[in-house]
Amino acid sequence: LSALSFDPQPTTPAQEARATTSKTIRFMTQEVRRTTRGFLCVVSNCGPMQRVAIVGCGFMGRMHANVYRLLENATLAAVVDHRLERAEKFGEEFGVPSFTTLEEAAGFVDVIDICLPTYVHREFTERAAKAEKHVFCEKPMALTVADAGAMQAVCNSAGVRLMVGHCIRFWPEYALLKKLVDNALLGRLLSINLTR
């Protein structure tokens, strides 16, 4: 799935000892399937149980709902969609109450997980912060730098956390790549080709 190449010239004694090893690392599909679990392990060690409301019962909302089933320190507690029928069906499937507004769900949760189109991320982040709920927002964060700054400012003012779902950095194979590059364990990085 992914490959990277390093300069074969060793730059440290440790690299000299490994000079005969391959300078290309490949990550197979099987390892990528494990990345979700690896990501979940990182996230699950983040403190006390968090009750989460997903706002947006579409494709990404479903992906997030399935992840919450696997987490040790987070649980799906509510779902929100402006289309009542969709919210009810989704809530029934995941065994949680359904609502048509974020504000209705806020009383049941600690975290609002925004799985909506990017152009409404700022609006829903502001609404979640006003309800004094932490925010997990699907990427991309916003359409403009101004909107992203406003999202950060409103969460800071409300004393709540804002996290954007840039999950790849937590996946084990990417953490390993960062370590390899930062410590020049296989030499100087020459090229990298990653697909998801």
Question: Brief overview, please?
Answer:
This protein is of the alpha/beta class and 196 residues long. Helix content is 43%, strand content 20%. The protein is built from eight helices and nine strands.
Give the helix/strand layout.
Layout: E1 2-6, H1 13-17, E2 24-27, H2 29-44, E3 50-55, H3 59-70, E4 74-80, H4 84-94, E5 98-99, H5 102-106, E6 111-114, H6 121-130, E7 134-137, H7 145-158, E8 162-164, H8 172-182, E9 189-193
Parallel strand pairs: 3-4, 3-6, 4-5, 6-7, 7-8
Antiparallel strand pairs: 1-2, 1-9
Helix pairs in contact: 6-7
What does this structure look like?
The chain is α/β, with parallel strands linked by helices and 196 residues long. 43% of the residues lie in helices and 20% in strands. The chain is built from 8 helices and 9 strands. The strands form 2 sheets. A 6-stranded parallel β-sheet has the order 5-4-3-6-7-8, with helices on both faces. α6 packs parallel to α7 (145-158). 30% of the residues are buried.
- Tell me about the biggest sheet? 6 strands, parallel
From the alpha carbons, calculate the radius of gyration and give it in angstroms.
20 Å
Mean pLDDT across all amino acids: 81
Between the first and last Cα atoms, what is the distance in angstroms? 7 Å
Going across the biggest sheet, name each strand in turn. 5-4-3-6-7-8
Category from helices, strands and their pairing: alpha/beta
Low-pLDDT windows of residues: 1-8, 13-45
Number of helices: 8
Assembly classification: single chain
β content, as a range? Answer: 15-25%
Helix percent reads: 40-55%
Order of helices and strands: EHEHEHEHEHEHEHEHE
Total count of strands:
9
* Outline: globular
